[in-house]
Structure formats: C-alpha cells, structure tokens
Amino acid sequence: MQQYDTVIIGAGPSGLECAYDLAKAGQQVLVLDKNSDAISNDSSIGHKTCAGGITEKVLDLIPENIYEIGFNNVYINVKGRKTKFFKKSPKITTIDRVKYSQYLIDKAKEAGAEIRTETRVSQIRESSVITDGKEIAFRHLVGADGSLSIVRKYLGLKTEKKGMAFHYLVNKNFSDLEYFLDADLFSTGYAWIFPHDEFTSIGAYADIKDISPQMLKKNFQKWLNKKDIDVSGAQFYAAQIPYDYKGHKFEKIYLAGDAAGFASGLTGEGIYAAIISGKDIAGLILDKGYRTDGIDDLLRTKKAQEYLLNIFRHSGPLKNIEYNIIVSLLKINSTKKVLANILR
Ligand SMILES: Cc1cc2nc3c(=O)[nH]c(=O)nc-3n(C[C@H](O)[C@H](O)[C@H](O)COP(=O)(O)OP(=O)(O)OC[C@H]3O[C@@H](n4cnc5c(N)ncnc54)[C@H](O)[C@@H]3O)c2cc1C
Questions:
Q1: In CATH, which of 3.30.420.10, 3.50.50.60, 3.90.550.10, 3.30.420.40 is domain 2-343?
Q2: From ligand 1's centre to the CA of 16, what distance in Å?
Q3: Predicted confidence (pLDDT) per residue in 12-32, tens digit
Q4: Cα(113)–Cα(115) distance, rounded to whole angstroms?
C-alpha cells in the first residue's frame, strides 16, 4: 500500500495552498481530486460554480495575472436606491478561476506535491482512503473537498448553517460591479452583477433558513425580468455554501475551506477563507505548536457577520430600512472602518 505524510482530498484553493506549504517543507504530499485538470473541460477543477469576486484582503494572495477586472467603483442598490462607493485602488477584482486553478496546481507540483486528478475518494478509513479500488495510507488527512465534503461526513459533523447560490454566466459585458439588496426578494441575501473579461456572472445568494432555494430561484428570475436582463442561452449553475464551522482539527484529520464551513454566511464569500485555512492547516501539520492566527481572525469575522445576519433575520419588514442604514454608515468615515472590517 502506498503511504504519504499527508493526503489531501480536493484540489481547490484550500487543498492546493495546503499542499504547496507542506511539499515546500519537504513532506510527501498527495492531492486527490475527482475532476480533471484539462483547462477546456467543463468538469475541470478550475470550472467552479463561483462568481470569482475577490475583495482587497485577497489581492496580495493571488498573482496579478489571474485578475480580470479591477473596480474602483462598487455600487450597492437597496430596493432600487443606488449608492456608489469609490476607492482609488480597486475595492473588488474579478478573477479567472480556471487560470487561478492552473496557477495553484503548477505551484504545488513545483514544490513537490503529487496531484492525481479524475480520482474520486469513495471511502475513508482510520488511516487510509479508498480510491478506484486502491487503498492509500496517510499520517495526516486534510478534507479540502468543498461543500459536500465526505471527510466532514466521515467525522459525523452535521451541516445546519448553509446558503444557496445561483448564477448565470451571461455572454454580455456589463460595465459596473453591483450588489442588490431587497428583503422582499432575497430576504437576508442579495443579487449581484460581477463583470469578467468574457462574460458576466449574474447571481443570487441567501441563507436557506431565511428563504427556500425554490423561492430564491423564483424571485431571482422575477428580478432578472424586472431588470430586463436576458439570460436565454446562458449557462446556469447552483451550489450550496456551508458555513457551519465545527472545528478544523480532529486528531490526524483536518478540515479546510468550505469543508470546514469557513465561508461567510452573510456574503457567501469563501476564496479568502479557503486560502488562509489551507495555509494554517499546513502550519499545524508541520508544527503542533503553530499559532493559527489566520484561522482565529477568520472565526472572529465570521462571528461578527453571523451576529449581523441574525439581526437582519429577526427584523422582519424592517430589513430594507436596516440595509439603507448600513449603506449610509458605510459612507461616514467614523463608522465605515468598523463596518468594512466586518464586511471585508
Ligand atoms: C454561485 C457561487 C458564487 C460564489 N462566488 C464567490 C465569490 O465571488 N467570491 C468568493 O470568495 N467566493 C465565492 N464563492 C465561494 C467559493 O467558490 C468557495 O468558498 C471556494 O471555492 C472554496 O474553496 P475550497 O478549496 O474549500 O473548495 P472547492 O473550491 O469547492 O474545492 C473542492 C474540491 O474537492 C473536490 N472533491 C470533492 N469531493 C471529492 C471526492 N470525494 N474525491 C475527490 N475530490 C473531491 C472537488 O472536485 C473540488 O475540486 C461562490 C460560491 C458559489 C456556489
């Protein structure tokens, strides 16, 4: 039976960042992913159901050649009332997730990690995983296998807190990056328009506790019609975003990124959390005394965001008024910083 220091299930940003740091430190690392690494293939690792928007905090962690469009102006619409936020350096940038994936794969391989694609892990045992009928032994196992993680299931962790996100990839250029808050349509969630170089991601996200996925989809369609956005012929994607964090270290098994529930319940954003948690878990595997400052900071932000989400959740018809207050507070210098820290 083959044996590795660390086996990582999932070649998303959390798994590959973790693999890179471990391989660089000299560990024997194996990354397994059920998808292919062929760029053109629609079931490739890089073809994620993701709007590909990153905020300022992520910019230093992703090379510039992966960026698509940087936006100095970001628009927040609350029930039709549009407010512009301007910053000299781009506040939000869209990225090409296929290119990003290739960059992460190349980086991990160069550091010495072995990556096996089109390899689905079907079973987890105490010290090994089963894939294609073969057994592979590990000293450490990292579940970086996304929103439907089998490692999380193996650990017996339930996922109660989760959001649902839909988007169309529309072959039309929109010039502005916009968020749309409207409690009557999206409850505590929102819709977005994120322009990329060759398409625009137009989608909606909300917590399933606040609005059922069926109702969200129906209301999203209503909103598209009202805005006269034609999505005929556009590809439609849907996926869950779990945010039910219940720990990341379980003896020799670790969870990173979406598998651990590190994504934001308020915004559905998860790329930053995937990178930071993947790196911190590599640190922990290499050194038991490692300080997981990145994860601690993520958890503090998550707590503040879920507090805000709960306020919205329990405000009934006052939600739209609260959204307007938040937008106004984001315009005032003294309150902007505190709120930006929570929403970042
Ligand atoms: C519609 C939508 C829009 C989004 N937009 C944004 C956004 O604009 N900005 C942002 O920051 N975040 C966004 N997100 C969230 C973001 O995409 C995720 O949080 C992020 O990709 C998580 O990274 P990860 O490495 O944890 O998991 P993933 O990127 O999901 O990677 C998991 C990998 O595990 C593999 N895998 C799963 N099971 C197995 C198995 N049994 N065997 C082998 N391999 C397996 C999968 O093939 C996959 O490659 C969005 C999500 C959705 C659904």
A1: 3.50.50.60
A2: 12
A3: 999 999 999 999 999 999 999
A4: 6
